[in-house]
Design goal:
This protein is an alpha+beta fold. Helices cover about 20% and strands about 30% of the residues. The protein folds into 2 domains: about 30 residues; about 100 residues, Immunoglobulin-like (Sandwich), CATH 2.60.40. The chain is built from 1 helix and 10 strands. A 4-stranded mixed sheet has the order 1-3-6-9, with no helix packed on it. It is elongated.
């Protein structure tokens, strides 16, 4: 009976270790995301950066204002561009949870002084799940 109990204990420990390992890998993968934001609920992003960008970009939403009975942010600002990106073009797209674009892509033809780039929000800011930034 003791060998059956020790075998069961080993199985439980092995499964527990596997679960902890998978959870650790998930956290390690999430820590690689290079977007940051002052609002924890907006920590999603699509990382598409040109070779000139090595530092994390910061995404911030404008302070909400009351509009039609709801508080809404009207713009999103991406900052923290490396100086080596000056002169490059930048596109900012807002995406919902399914990856569909919200509104139109905001384009800056020539980045100056490390940005920032401010894009208007068309529609509900709460629908934004990702901010895609392309430097080219």
């Amino acid at each position: 009976m003791s060998s059956s109990r020790s075998s069961r204990t080993r199985k439980v420990l092995a499964v527990s270790l596997a679960v902890v390992g998978v959870a650790g890998l998930s956290l390690a993968s999430a820590s690689q995301l290079s977007f940051s934001s002052p609002q924890p609920q907006m920590q999603a992003g699509v990382q598409v950066a040109g070779a000139c960008q090595t530092a994390p970009l910061t995404v911030a939403f404008a302070d909400p204002t009351l509009s039609e009975g709801k508080f809404r942010s009207s713009t999103v600002t991406v900052s923290g561009f490396d100086a080596t990106c000056n002169g490059e073009s930048v596109k900012v797209a807002l995406l919902d949870a399914s990856g569909a674009q919200i509104g139109t892509t905001h384009t800056v033809a020539t980045l100056a002084n490390g940005g920032p780039v401010t894009a208007p929000i068309a529609g509900d800011a709460q629908a934004i799940a990702s901010v895609a930034v392309t430097i080219y």
